[in-house]
Write a structure and sequence with these properties.
Elements lengths: L1 H18 L7 E6 L4 E6 L2 E7 L12 E3 L3 E7 L7 E9 L2 E5 L15 E3 L1 H14 L4 E6 L1
Parallel strand pairs: 1-9, 7-8
Antiparallel strand pairs: 1-2, 2-3, 4-9, 5-6, 6-7
Length: 143
């Protein structure tokens, strides 16, 4: 019986850690459009800096602070000829952070508005977001 109590208690603690503010890991994703760079921090510790591609001239990547709305391991764009968008993290309507096949353009403006990453980095960020939880993740986008 003590083992059962220990398991129940461990489950309750895990649940509390993901639902009470301040107990869960805080994932922060900073996108600097002027530098075309993303910085990823977990609990204020910088873990990654990656090149990205944001909106090309005539298109828009919105500025602001966002919380992920949905995630898809593999998404195909209905707006852009079924373009593959691996490891998509949607944060504002049709805007997402996702992997790209156009890795040679990373570090330069090139997208229709989404934030493109190398697929390996997109997978890391996707898994980190799953681990921290969407409510504990903030996406901060600035010029």
């Amino acid at each position: 019986m003590p083992r059962l109590y220990a398991r129940v208690l461990a489950g309750l603690v895990a649940l509390l850690m993901t639902t009470i503010p301040g107990w869960a890991d805080q994932l922060r994703v900073y996108i600097d459009k002027s530098e075309q760079m993303m910085s990823v921090s977990l609990d204020d510790e910088l873990l990654y800096r990656w090149p990205v591609s944001t909106a090309r001239p005539g298109k828009v990547t919105p500025n602001g602070v966002f919380t992920p709305q949905s995630m898809k391991r593999m998404h195909y764009s209905t707006l852009y000829n079924n373009a593959p968008m691996p490891f998509s993290i949607f944060f504002s309507g049709n805007y997402a952070i996702h992997g790209t096949t156009q890795i040679k353009k990373l570090g330069c403006v090139a997208s229709a508005g989404c934030i493109r990453l190398h697929p390996d980095n997109a997978e890391i960020l996707f898994n980190m977001t799953l681990e921290a939880g969407m409510p504990n993740t903030r996406i901060i986008i600035r010029d």
